[in-house]
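Recall the central idea of this unit: under ordinary conditions, the amino acid sequence of a chain determines the structure it adopts. In this exercise we apply that idea directly, starting from the sequence alone.
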Amino acid sequence: MLQQLAFEQIADGIRQYMAVYDEPQVFVPGTTRIPLSSPTHGADEVIEALDSLISTWVTMGPKVKRFERMFADYIGRKHAVMVNSGSSANLLALSALNLQPGDEVITPALTWATTVWPIAQVVAIPVLVDVERDSYNISPAAIEAAITPKTRAIMPVHVLGNPCNMDAIMDIADQHGLDVIEDCCEALGAMCHGRKVGCFGDLATFSFYFSHHISTIEGGMVLTNNDVLADMCRSQRSHGWMRDLSNREEVAAQYPDIDPRFPFPNTGYNLRPTEIQGAFGIHQLPKLDGLVETRRVNTTWLNGALSPYRRWLMLPSEAQDTFHSFMGYPLTVKPGAPFTKGQLVQFLEGKGLETRPLLTGNIVNQPAMKQIQYRVSGTLDNAQYIQENSFYIGPHPGIRTRERVAIKEYFDEFFKGVSCASYKPRE
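Accordingly, the structure predicted from this sequence is:
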């Protein structure tokens, strides 16, 4: 009783502290930094994590399992397997497919490194194809052209919350008997035709990194409807152990000479999350829809504010029958513009507006690509153009009215100095 009372007093103190912490700070346009992301957690997550610390159950436990069930229900899949990061989720999903050396996995050249590295780490071959310049997503036509007898899987990436053309991708996969792993690490809450991304592929991966839609500090999830793949993910998540298998008693019976608590029927990794990450997740997930809506509101406002500059900039858009969750607000400098991406980015950064390139750019240009075996199918012209001419800023919930107005003023100031007398836009 005394312990519970003491904990409640600590919890009240945390709530009071976090309430003060959340109050808007003084903002000076042109001086105060506008970051790419902002924290999404509050007092509830901190108190839940503290409860785990005090209980001493800090490794993967009931809170992780609760978050897994909540997340599977939210996306609409049968199984969810939490891991320590979105990168680990990709590695685990690929490992579960039991790919063989030389098997090919088609994925976009515009991506994040930890989509491509795990393909090589499971001794398969990444096959890099071009993306669509307007959506930044993998081109279905490029996928079709890249298929060979060695192709085993397709790994599309929903870039910055923009859903890929999953109908076309799944049609291609069905026609050729290919597995599909959806990399949804940047696309929590996004939808195609009323279905959340992550519902289409054989496997889907998500990330709860600190700067993403919701955060478990670090963390990730693998989703599937396939019982066998789910069991393989649970086993390989924990060293190849049989503890989390649905048929663990049957497996133990096959090895009577081994302590029944410790058969290892598979090879594996240690990709387990902590109970603290699960504690964050169970409070973060109910906030997700509201956080996504704020990102969409900010994006709509910014599109209106920057609409006078559409002849120079490609602004983000939403394809028909999709729901974009806008992890970032991407901008592309159009061909022939009287300024470069570098000039615009340098100006904005000088004002305190944080920017980022789009993922790794054309990943073929990254130095680590010299260390792995890969194949390029077709040209990568759009991925290269995006690397040279695209960047993004944050539409996150930390962007309030004063930040939005400041961002508009920064762009207005930049374009006042742009000479456009001889400019003729080219698409």
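The CA atoms of residues 144 and 172 lie 7 Å apart.
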